[in-house]
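Re: pyridoxal-5'-phosphate structure - here you go.
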Amino acid sequence: MARIHNFSAGPAVLPEEVLLEAARDLPDYQGKGLSVMEMSHRSAAFGDIMAQAEADLRQLADIPEDYALLFLQGGAHTQFSMVPMNLVRNGKADFVLTGHWAQKAMDEAGRFLDARAVASSEGTGYDRIPDLKGLNIRPEADYVHICENNTIFGTQFHTLPDTGGVPLVGDLSSDIFSRPLDVRQYGLIYAGTQKNLGIAGLTLVIVRKDLVREDLPGTVPLMLGYHTHLKAGSRYNTPPTFSIYMTGLVARWLLSGGGLAGAAQRNERKARLLYETLDESPLFKARVQEDSRSLMNVVFSTGDQALDERFVKGAEARGLSGLKGYRTVGGMRASLYNALPYDSVVALRDYIKEFEGEHPC
Ligand SMILES: Cc1ncc(COP(=O)(O)O)c(C=O)c1O
């Protein structure tokens, strides 16, 4: 099987073992004579798949009983509005801005409540997590929102802000379950599974149950109320069955590889190799300040657009795929999610060295 080195920002690389298991199961899931895709979401067989996936995800992050784990659809984009719709009480929310995704979450929330930035790194081109000391969080705010890992700018929170008891909401779309996660530090976490935990189509929401309101205004569609999905065990309507099955397989794979501590060790090793290569390089430069660097998305460039384009083209020719930076940032971005093998980063390091040799400064 010839597989490329897949640095895609998402949907992204899956563990080969998981793909092979899914392929084996595809026409006939465990001797039942049908595939998971053909099963009723109300069948006992699918009920078992979903219950096992939930149990494994709960075990991985030690999710306490007073937190619900919901299997939803609509991606993080739907959460940008579901969060304010469901958490609004006093009509205020505070945001730490780290660029595109954090801004989008704030803009969307601003359609439902008074959304305000309490910190931003816009002034330095989002090359860092802003200073989190002495944030002017409104004590009556309904929540404080962060994007824990900014996929586009390549920044990641390594410590969480002190919100003084205001529930913290995290968009973990690009770093969920890539390292140990203390769920209790959050009131609510949301993430699509298509980067670290499976395929597109499934959005995980982990929410403290006391934040789930039943008395939402009648203008909130039932489908967009957390209470609807909590009461229905994530089967209010047809859930994304195959995506849930795939996330279950990835959860199993993570458990067998030492859980989230094991994942963190592998992810740190990959990121260390790449950042060290960039820091030693006379040609390439990592975009983000050292203390804010993402272990998931490494953004870098030569500072010369034409040279960056040549690098990406040469990379593709060598089977190093998905390295083109986000369109508004340019340069390169290497996404090193859970399933990316260490060997892929070694191959990228070797190509960086080769390219440097061919383009002396
Ligand atoms: C941090 C972050 N938030 C939100 C999104 C949007 O996610 P979705 O496309 O699942 O709505 C992305 C997508 O890449 C992301 O990386």
